[in-house]
Amino acid sequence: MRYFFFCVLALASLHFIPSLAFAESTSDCTQKPIASGYGADGRFTVKLDSIMLKGEGNDRVYFFRPDTAGQFPCIFFCHRYGDISYEEYSHLINHLVSRGNCVIYSPARTIDFTEKQIRSTAIPYTGIVDAVNYFKTYLDTTLIGCIGHSFGAGAAPAIVYNYLTEKHWGTRGSYLYLMSPWYAYGNDIRKLRAFPSQTSLVVQIFDQDRINDPRIGLDIFNSIDIPLQRKKFLIVRSDKRGDCQLRADNFTPFSNNAILGEENSLDYYGIFRIVDGLANYAFYKDTSGYSIALGGSGARDITMGQWPDGIGIRTMLALDSPSVYFQNGLFVNNWESLRNPRIDATRFRQARKVFGGFIKKTAKLYATTIKTALKEPRVQVANLESEGLDIMPNPILHGFGADSSFGMTVDSFPRPDLPFPIQQKGWVYVFRPNGIHIKTPVLFMLHGYIGQDYQSFQPLISHIVSKGISVVYPTYPFLPKFINEKGVLDKYAYVYAGLDSALVRFSKGFDTTRIGFFGQSFGGGMVPAVAYKMIVTKHWGSMGSFMFMSAPWYSFDITPEQLASFPSSTMLLMQVYNDDWMNDHEMAVDIFNSIGIPQSQKDFVTLYTDSLDGYTMLANHFLPYGVKNMYGQLNLHDYYGVFRYFDALAAYSWYGTESGKSIALGHGSKKQCFMGTWPDGKPIRPASVLLQPKALHPELQYVYSWDNKLNPRRLVSAPVAQDSLSH
């Protein structure tokens, strides 16, 4: 269950992201589902069917129905972006079906996060149409509901609007249940104001959600033309009792089958009970259902059950005017964003375009370099509007951080020996520079837990390859989840095997005397083990080796002795992000302080969020991601804080370039910490560099804390820093 333990003696707790976390509950923390009434499971057994999703490879649309004859209300389930497996919501889906509903779960089709696509009316859950047509004999389309979470909650109003107005469904009842909504694309203000007023609506947010700005849900709630007596805004609040904690965040709707999923009273009372009441009122005009989901005017408290000792769990807030309860905060998806189709983004666009003007103005000085800098589509000044949001062109025109001239060839192959269906196979990607007929240095890139699609890192990969470097990108499957060290090491095994396969296939093209490792999150924690095997076991990297670790998760498969005896010739750049609330910085601190690399060969760098006129460059867990990922950006943090550092580290490590050392391992020099300037000449907030770092933020800030039972190094004491150097 979703309880986080902070017992000092046991040192047990649980956290992580592009990865997994599973806490073990104790008898003191155990909570039971609701036994009867709203929120309790119904009498129907669940039957699962599916059909192939047209034009989408082996993806399927899933249809859940009661295992009995008859027609039942139709519920569209719109999931969080990237979470295509219905198992992540299995407890909620099973609950809905047990109470006599059919549920259509259509995996969302991938979209590019360009302004054109986000502001269009195209909805990526098009498999709903196929499922409705195929399973129509089971559906009572006079009763429809739509449950959306995060990305899916942003899509839900447009989906329901289309079915209510174009197909005239829901004539006897309809509802929307939106949890932590992402931007409401496909819903212009006219549609929201013309929304069928007979629909009932619940918008629900979670007080520890750091993904989606609550003002997104507030805007939907206030703008949609549903009478106030038929809608309610709910805030689920976290609570703690002794060593047990209920965390209300963006992962709250997930089941035990999902990474980060925990079934507890937040689900039973905060979601199951409310959606049952909402459905019974919307479909059957049940007044008791109305009082649970929508009843009462103004602000009121909704009971959330009890702790095992009989103390009541912190109540959920039900609001009609929720804006007074909001405070400004920093979210992955802020209200003020170029991706938000519901705001005037003119000033953000202007702030971004100024950098394009800077490049044009400087082109006369760097006539040769500018052709290279503008060659890649992602930095063409003239095409910013069509290419994507949150993109700034690269102002670095020469030297470290600037793109070079080599194009890219992409090769990929699956591992047929792996016991997974095709979509779960361990695909391996190899990116090579075009036009090079000698062996190239090679970088092994280890992705975060949601990075199976290499396009999340495409800008960084393209930049590295443009420098004449090959990149090997081994993947590991998102599922199955793991609950122990063996489960984690199974993921490592995929990476080891994938690397071996790539090296056999492309051995003639790789210069293994010059190697590097880049890892983010789960992959960042994996870097020491992979690097140790390559450098020590295989004796590679004789002409130079380095590690670039970005916001690392827990590190497995390397002993304290191996870490302490790490080859001193290897160089290390450890990078964390001040607003990362996923991975405790202590993981990075521990590896940095414990690894057997001398101080002269390593630096610990922190990047910081900064903004101009509301345009925010986030320094959070997803900073290395590009705009192909819904959480990614492409701006000065990438160019100065990742591209430039990488180039300098590679140049110094492989070729002894002293100017590279001053950037990548400058021990806090002004040149190293410089992150560029805003158009008005004001410097971006500089990076800080610590030679003997400490974790500065409280452990409770993180989803994955150091004192987690899953962390194999939590009982290993890292050296205590005596002083630090920062700029």
Largest beta-sheet details: 10 strands, mixed
Helix fraction, binned, reads 25-40%
Adjacency order of strands in the biggest sheet: 1-2-4-3-5-6-7-8-12-11
Q: What are the segments in which pLDDT stays under 50 over at least 5 consecutive residues? A: 1-27, 361-387, 419-424, 718-727
How much of the sequence lies in strands comes to: 15-25%
What is Rg? 26 Å
User: Based on helices, strands and strand pairing, what is the structural class?
Assistant: alpha/beta
Query: Total number of β-strand segments?
Result: 23
Task: Please give the alpha-carbon distance between the first and last residues.
Answer: 42 Å
**Total of DSSP H or I helical runs spanning 4+ residues:** 19
Principal-axes shape call: elongated
Mean pLDDT: 84
Features:
727 residues, disordered N terminus, disordered C terminus, 18% strand, alpha/beta
Your description of this structure?
Helices cover 27% and strands 18% of the residues. The protein is elongated, with a radius of gyration of 26 Å.
Give the helix/strand layout.
Elements: E1 46-52, E2 60-66, E3 72-78, H1 90-98, E4 102-105, H2 115-119, H3 127-134, E5 139-149, H4 151-165, E6 173-179, H5 189-193, E7 200-206, H6 214-223, E8 231-236, E9 239-241, E10 244-246, H7 265-284, H8 287-293, E11 300-302, E12 316-319, H9 346-362, H10 367-373, H11 384-387, E13 408-413, E14 428-433, E15 440-446, H12 458-466, E16 470-474, H13 485-505, E17 510-520, H14 522-537, E18 544-550, H15 560-564, E19 571-577, H16 585-594, E20 602-607, E21 610-612, E22 615-617, H17 636-655, H18 658-664, H19 670-673, E23 688-690
Parallel strand pairs: 3-4, 3-5, 5-6, 6-7, 7-8, 15-16, 15-17, 17-18, 18-19, 19-20
Antiparallel strand pairs: 1-2, 2-4, 8-12, 9-10, 11-12, 13-14, 14-16, 20-23, 21-22
